[in-house]
Amino acid sequence: MKRHVILVLAVATAAALMLAGCGSGTTTTPSGTTGGGSAPSAVTVSMAGIAFNPSTIDVAVGGAVSFKNDDTVQHIVAGESWSSGPIDPGKSFTQTFSTAGAIAVRCTIHPSMTMTVNVK
User: Fold this and answer.
1) Which H or E run includes 53?
2) CA triplet 70, 46, 53: central angle to 5 degrees?
3) Measured between alpha carbons, how far is 43 from 31 in angstroms, rounded to an integer?
4) Which residues contact 101 (CB under 8 A, 6 or more apart)?
5) Residue-wise pLDDT tens for the chain (120 aa)?
6) How many domains is the chain partitioned into structurally?
7) For residue 28, which of 55, 52, 49 has the smallest C-alpha distance?
8) Structural domain of residue 34, as residue ranges?
9) What span, in angstroms and rounded, lies between the C-alpha atoms of 14 and 97?
10) CA nearest neighbour of 40 among 77, 65, 20
């Protein structure tokens, strides 16, 4: 019985620590990232509350970012030379980034909705 209580407490503590790191609006390092601080090859960004979350991410050159519309309104995700077209609530759009650099991303419907993709 004592082992069971300790296990439950350990799982609850781990879950609380993971949740504490969510939604900070800072650079993300999702699970699956290879060691040494290298950028991940795939990242998912949520669109909710007329905002990108997180607002800054790292992705490897050749990597893909999926933009998931968790909002109640449509979004159009765009960079300098690409655009998703309308993304309905509950739908996603994936963009591959082949050139290193800081990429400004915005929603063309909601001008205040911006983020940065750091391609490394």
Assistant:
1) strand 52-53
2) 130
3) 9
4) 118, 119
5) 444 434 333 434 333 333 334 333 333 334 333 334 588 999 999 999 999 999 999 999 999 999 999 999 999 999 999 999 999 999 999 999 999 999 999 999 999 999 999 999
6) 1
7) 55
8) 26-119
9) 33
10) 65
Which residues have a Cβ under 8 Å from the Cβ of 86 and sit 6 or more positions away? 74, 75, 76
Q: How many CB atoms are closer than 10 A to CB 28?
A: 20
Evaluate whether residue 72 is within a structural domain: yes
Please state the pTM of the whole predicted model. 0.69
| d(C-alpha 105, C-alpha 80), whole Å | 8
Around Cβ 75, how many Cβ atoms within 10 Å? 25
CATH of the domain at 71: 2.60.40.420
Gap between the Cα atoms of 65 and 49, Å rounded: 19
Cα 94 to Cα 45: distance, rounded to the nearest angstrom = 10
